[in-house]
Design goal:
Length: about 375
């Protein structure tokens, strides 16, 4: 009853923090052991209502570090039980290890605030559906979010890269899933330093067969292509596919090994392919910013982007969640403009401002 009262919309967050501290002082002096679960219930309720943001604010505002540690231990215990996070037990019978079947999402955070977590979670579930991985037994989004927040807190990085993996599930015959897919413990690393060094791309036939699904196995081929391209002096690979006579005999360019690609044409038109690519979260943000800013005459998602467009292309850039926006100096024999006085740099600033504002609005 008291727990419900604390999380009421009628109680300002500042008062909630004050009341939470007061309650803890009572619990710590008299009923700490039997009542810790009650206080943890309050925190978990806040997660469900606000998708973790007030949870993060609350922990930052508490000056009693012992209190934060107790809450974290209890949340970790609860969330890990829900997420079946008892290490990596059982993976030897999982399709992730046996066949490379599993999906993943990559995202980044500042402190314990994750950038566009809802969008990444939605796309992760879409990848599960495309890979025929049942989602009914997966833990709820808020449990996943709480566990990631705990891992971020424990790592202590100011800026982190996060990889979240859903396995293909256990198998009896080594081919078909018998259910029980797992959400593995989040992989947290320090966010790599951004680079603005223009890239040299190699054109290569191929790519992932089902690019709309962020499935683990197919990326192994991409990494082999990347290693070969790097040995030949390139920074990345731009894939193309043969589409017969659809494009007048020209090949359709899709994506790089791990990122989406955009082209700036001479008449100030921004173009990116719509099919044959992963619908990246960063890609979607860039498209919205490009439209709302008005810096381009037109912003086009074309069903196919053909190689005969490259002579009319004056700039190009690559986008992904971890590396952000990186300019491209050449694709095969075609060279592009780079530097400060380019549309690419304007888009970089628009995106950086969006990222900074996102975290500022959430107190990160």
């Amino acid at each position: 009853m008291c727990c419900h009262f604390i999380s009421s919309n009628f109680i300002p967050l500042e008062n909630t923090l004050w009341l939470a501290r007061g309650l803890f002082q009572i619990l710590r002096t008299r009923w700490l052991i039997p009542r810790v679960s009650f206080l943890t219930g309050f925190i978990c309720l806040k997660i469900q209502r606000t998708e973790g943001e007030h949870f993060v604010v609350l922990l930052k505002a508490l000056q009693d570090k012992d209190f934060a540690g107790i809450i974290f231990c209890r949340i970790r215990e609860d969330a890990e039980r829900k997420m079946r996070m008892s290490g990596y037990n059982g993976l030897d019978k999982d399709l992730l290890i046996i066949r490379g079947k599993g999906v993943f999402a990559t995202m980044f955070a500042r402190g314990t605030t994750i950038f566009h977590f809802d969008d990444h979670w939605r796309r992760l579930l879409e990848s599960c559906g495309g890979a025929h991985i049942a989602t009914s037994s997966l833990p709820p989004k808020n449990s996943v979010l709480a566990t990631i927040a705990v891992s971020l807190w424990n790592k202590g990085f100011s800026r982190s890269a996060i990889r979240l993996i859903v396995t293909g599930g256990k198998t009896r015959d080594g081919k078909h899933s018998a259910g029980s897919p797992m959400v593995l413990p989040p992989m947290i690393t320090r966010m790599p330093k951004p680079t603005n060094t223009p890239l040299k791309l190699q054109l290569r036939y191929g790519g992932r067969r089902r690019p709309e699904i962020k499935m683990i196995g197919p990326y192994a081929d991409c990494m082999l292509d990347l290693e070969e391209a790097e040995s030949e002096g390139y920074d990345d690979v731009l894939y193309y596919e043969n589409v017969g006579g659809v494009g007048g005999g020209f090949d359709a360019m899709t994506e790089t090994t791990c990122a989406n690609i955009f082209y700036v044409l001479r008449d100030t038109i921004l173009v990116t392919p719509q099919s044959g690519v992963l619908q990246g979260v960063t890609r979607d943000i860039i498209l919205r910013l490009a439209v709302s800013s008005g810096i381009f005459k037109r912003v086009l998602e074309l069903p196919k982007v053909f190689s005969n467009m490259l002579p009319d292309c004056i700039e190009a850039f690559r986008s992904s969640s971890i590396s952000g926006i990186v300019p491209i100096r050449s694709i095969g024999p075609y060279k592009f403009q780079t530097g400060n006085d380019t549309k690419t740099q304007i888009v970089c600033k628009l995106y950086a401002d969006h990222v900074n504002q996102y975290f500022k609005d959430r107190g990160a």
